[in-house]
């Protein structure tokens, strides 16, 4: 598994930290942001290859952040979204917002690991 | 369903209907009395007119007889059937269309002069009652007999008599035969109603003439009818209602003694004829009242149906609202549990990871446990909402209880918000459950903290309610006293729309972060206590929540 530069965007600090620890253990380089605005700044500054994006964010929600990210960084960036409560149309919305994968919380770590593997 | 009908409205309607019905019945009954009274007045009037006419006729007869008797006297008793004397009598007879003949009877009873001569044979009338009356009482000047059937076949007549001469010895009579048929014709001319009946009696109850129905009963005594048994002995004129007159059925009868004669005139009208017009009105009123009643019934049925329809629509709406709330709750729970399981799952993965060190593992364990505890808390929260636990009610000094929770509240408010408890002074004890009070206050303080974006001031005051600030209470509890706990924050306040819905279960302004159960729980708690709750708020002016606790009754706690 090749190391990735991963940005975690989640307003739930515990979830963000736990995910960061896990990803670092897997050997990735991890950055954190807790809302959409910070996420966009981090992307500009660190140019991550993957963004793990919570949907239920304060202010801009995850879908809006995804659209902005896509506009900013083009198709090279992989965007994986996570949601505590996915409605039926969330998967369609995720696709429209340019999200590569939409995951339902709790996220199965092994599945995430396989997703983060080489493309 | 009928419990929620606008009962008062229907009651007013029914009362109006009953009033209208009562009024209609009263008017109809009054109308009946008026109709009978009118019939009575009418018969009194007819009796007076007829009595006047008959009195007038007899006056004329007596004047004529007086003149004839005087002529007889002046001429010194002309010979029997003297032609000149008869011519004089015939002249006088022409002025009296109701008199069939005038004749003179000698002291022995033989006819001496007669307008009918020579058609009537030479007869003795000594046996006639009127002759005997005068013979027995020579001083008697005049009389009117009872009905007599003519011996010459000309029907019933009355004999009006006048004595001849002025001495104390009986010298004979002048007689006028007043025809019974004359009265009948007279009665027929004055425009009586079809059911009206006129009877002319003499003083000893013999029927002299009647209208209509010919000569039946003439010459018969009616001494048994109420006129003669009851009314005539009392008064010479009068009016009464009876079912016992000459004609069958209920009637109004008016009678009058005819002046200068021994005759009584009685005019009667049947009640049914008197009431015929009234009956049409009454039937009209009954029909109108029935129509009104039917319309009212249809209207009431319509209102009830309409109401039932609205009620069903309301129930459907409420059901839909409930489902929506349940959907929101489910979503919110799913979200919270999803997040917490996410944290647990990630931390478990950290634990499983070979590369993690002791410190990371300890931290992961601790965080996962916290997440599990918070999940348990959420469950507790839900269960609390699902089943209202019975309250543990005691008498509580509210100010003291609030002061005791200050540290806890400060904890809930976070480091950047200040909790201030204003001492309450001497207040009556209230009925409360201190544990639930604590929960309620924590809920309110957390709301205040969120409204103040973490920093600001929350002031708690306790005071006795006066009339300017008291909760709206149910009727029947107007005398209840309350201690108020006011919780004022320096937060953003709420717009009117939010304030109004703030107490609804599952209503939240905190998006996915809120359950919408906090305030509704506090509200439920205050309701259970028999108290109340009010929120004053406006955007930019902070929020004050008033909790009204009922003062504990003197003596024990319920």
What does this structure look like?
The complex is a heterodimer of chains A (119) and B (558). Chain A has helices spanning 13-25, 36-46, 62-73, 90-96, 109-116, and strands at residues 5-9, 29-33, 50-54, 78-83, 101-104. By secondary structure, chain A is an alpha/beta fold. In chain A, 45% of the residues are buried. The model of chain B has no long low-confidence stretch (mean pLDDT 85). In chain B, helix 10 packs parallel to helix 11 (434-451). Chain B has helices at 7-74, 83-94, 129-136, 180-189, 226-234, 271-274, 276-352, 358-386, 398-404, 406-413, 434-451, 496-501, 518-529; strands at residues 99-105, 111-114, 142-149, 156-163, 173-179, 197-202, 207-211, 237-244, 248-257, 263-270, 394-396, 417-421, 430-432, 456-464, 482-489, 532-537, 543-550. Chain A binds chain B through residues 12, 14-15, 17-19, 21-22, 25-26, 56, 58, 82-85, 87, 104-109, and chain B through 331-332, 334-336, 338-339, 341-350, 353, 355-356, 360, 363-364, 367, 370-371, 511-512.
List the helices and strands and how they pair.
The complex is a heterodimer of chains A (119) and B (558).
Chain A: E1 5-9, H1 13-25, E2 29-33, H2 36-46, E3 50-54, H3 62-73, E4 78-83, H4 90-96, E5 101-104, H5 109-116
Parallel strand pairs in A: 1-2, 1-3, 3-4, 4-5
Helix pairs in contact in A: 2-3
Chain B: H1 7-74, H2 83-94, E1 99-105, E2 111-114, H3 129-136, E3 142-149, E4 156-163, E5 173-179, H4 180-189, E6 197-202, E7 207-211, H5 226-234, E8 237-244, E9 248-257, E10 263-270, H6 271-274, H7 276-352, H8 358-386, E11 394-396, H9 398-404, H10 406-413, E12 417-421, E13 430-432, H11 434-451, E14 456-464, E15 482-489, H12 496-501, H13 518-529, E16 532-537, E17 543-550
Parallel strand pairs in B: 12-14
Antiparallel strand pairs in B: 1-2, 1-5, 3-4, 4-5, 6-7, 6-10, 8-9, 9-10, 11-13, 14-15, 15-17, 16-17
Helix pairs in contact in B: 1-2, 1-7, 7-8, 10-11, 11-13
